[in-house]
Amino acid sequence: MLTIWFIPALHIEWAKSRARAQRWHEEVLLLKEEMRRVLVYFEYKVSWWVECSEAEGRESTPVLAEGLH
User: Fold this and answer.
1) Are 69 and 56 in contact (CB under 8 A)?
2) Which residues contact 65 (CB under 8 A, 6 or more apart)?
3) What is the pLDDT of residue 20?
4) Contact present, 60 and 54 (Cβ < 8 Å)
5) What angle do CA 64, 68, 69 make, to 5 degrees?
6) Cα dist from 38 to 32, 49, 56, 67, whole Å
7) Residue 1 pLDDT > 60, yes or no?
8) What is the pLDDT of residues 6-60, one digit of tens each?
9) How far is CA 58 from CA 44, 45, 47, 54, in A?
10) H-state helical runs in the chain
11) ∠ Cα 17 18 22 (to 5°)
């Protein structure tokens, strides 16, 4: 036979476990979004560097031109 204290204690533990699971789920979503944003940023930087290397008129010195390429 179940005692009266057992059922409320079970409800409390279930609520704690559910809250913990929801926090972890949110953490996973945030991590995936952060990873997506990092990739987008790196793609942007690649295009920026390519654009800098192909820019004409800014290559005032051979050293600068070499660095951009």
Assistant:
1) no
2) 59
3) 97
4) no
5) 120
6) 10, 16, 29, 25
7) no
8) 688 888 898 999 999 999 999 999 999 999 999 999 999 999 988 877 776 665 6
9) 21, 19, 17, 10
10) 6-54, 62-68
11) 120
Residue 7 corresponds to which tokens in the numbers above? 């059922």
User: Quick one: tokens of 62?
Assistant: 């051979």
Pairwise CA distance, residues 28 & 26, whole Å:
5
How many residues can be counted in the chain? 69
Is the model's pLDDT at 4 over the cut of 70?
no
Give dist(CA 8, CA 16) in Å, integer: 12
pLDDT computed for residue 33 by the predictor: 98
Spatial contact of 53 and 69, defined as CB atoms under 8 Å apart: yes
DSSP 2: -
